[in-house]
Amino acid sequence: MVSIQERQVEERLADAGVRYTGGRRRVVAALGRSGGPMSASELHESLRGSVPVSSVYRTLAVLEDAGVVEPHHSAKGLTRYEMAEWLAGHHHHLVCQGCGAVEDIELPEGLESQLENLVRDVSGRAGFRVSGHSLEVVGLCRRCT
Amino acid sequence: MVSIQERQVEERLADAGVRYTGGRRRVVAALGRSGGPMSASELHESLRGSVPVSSVYRTLAVLEDAGVVEPHHSAKGLTRYEMAEWLAGHHHHLVCQGCGAVEDIELPEGLESQLENLVRDVSGRAGFRVSGHSLEVVGLCRRCT
DNA sequence: TTCCTTGCAAACGATTTGCATTGGA
DNA sequence: TCCAATGCAAATCGTTTGCAAGGAA
């Protein structure tokens, strides 16, 4: 999967005026492979230590600034990152209370747009300017059941 | 508001075999007053330092074990707590990207139950045993707009 | 007395930052 | 060349824990 996504990231980073170096490419690739958000240390491990933890953090900060990845805050003060919506598509999360794993899910089209309207409506009433939403379903995954 | 909720907490802690001391009462009261989840240090401040931070943490741990409060993970590795659903009622959150504040909102009855069905349906298909869900709407609050 | 609770300070773990070095355009 | 990027170590910051003192049953 060196394709479209890779190009888009390349372009976005160029626009942001930063380099798309080897280390950064590896982090993006690891995130692209993953089926859910990953933390800095998970990325560090996934890359077999080829990118030091501090560099992973800096890379994630750069990527977040450029709008390439988005943070996701989970238990025990861990922050996990995933490809931004415009790259990975809009989706929601199943969070396992047993093992802490996070899995992506998509809602059926109809329900998704209905939910969007609802969100806009309710939030507007509270004087809130909506920029996005995320549904988090908690429970036990197949393995932890 | 010394009423029902207070009684329920009292009972729950008694069942858990722990004391409902002054410090713990103050933490619960502060949470009850709040319109959204609060972190340990926010509680510490809100109580004008009358409860040391470490005690706030311990209190929150006890309350969580007893099922009186529930954690909510937010930006910058902060964990905020709020009264559990069975005490505060089911609701969702508006998260301000500007100031980080979290505000509670409720969905209209109809949409809420529809959302519940949807969640059960989609998650079940993924072999996931659902225990709850939470919708997080991100954007800018009135003050930060 | 006997536990549970509390406070302070030290310990921890995730994340950030200073600084000297490396590497790409 | 020149500035962004990197690696390491030290510094931060939220949170946890050890231990001795305080309190209620």
Description:
Two copies of one chain form a homodimer. Chain A has 145 residues and is of the alpha+beta class. Helices cover 45% and strands 24% of the residues of chain A. Chain A has a three-stranded antiparallel β-sheet. Chain A has a three-stranded mixed β-sheet with strand order 5-4-6. β6 of chain A pairs antiparallel with β6 (129-140) of chain B, so a sheet runs across the interface. The structure holds a DNA duplex (25 and 25 nucleotides).
Subunit organisation of the chains: homodimer
Q: Roughly how many Å apart are the termini of chain A?
A: 33 Å
Q: Point out poorly predicted stretches of chain A.
A: none
Order of helices and strands of chain A: HHEHHEEHEEHE
Strand order of the largest sheet of chain A: 1-3-2
Biggest interface reads:
A-B, 39 and 39 residues
Strand count, sense and barrel status of the largest sheet of chain A are: 3 strands, antiparallel
What Rg of chain A is obtained from the alpha carbons, in whole angstroms? 17 Å
Question: Can you tell me the overall shape of chain A?
Answer: globular
Total beta strand runs of chain A? 6
Nearest-integer average pLDDT of chain A: 90
Percent strand of chain A: 15-25%
* Residue share in helix of chain A: 40-55%
Number of helices, counting only DSSP H or I runs of 4 residues or more of chain A:
6
Structural class of chain A: alpha+beta
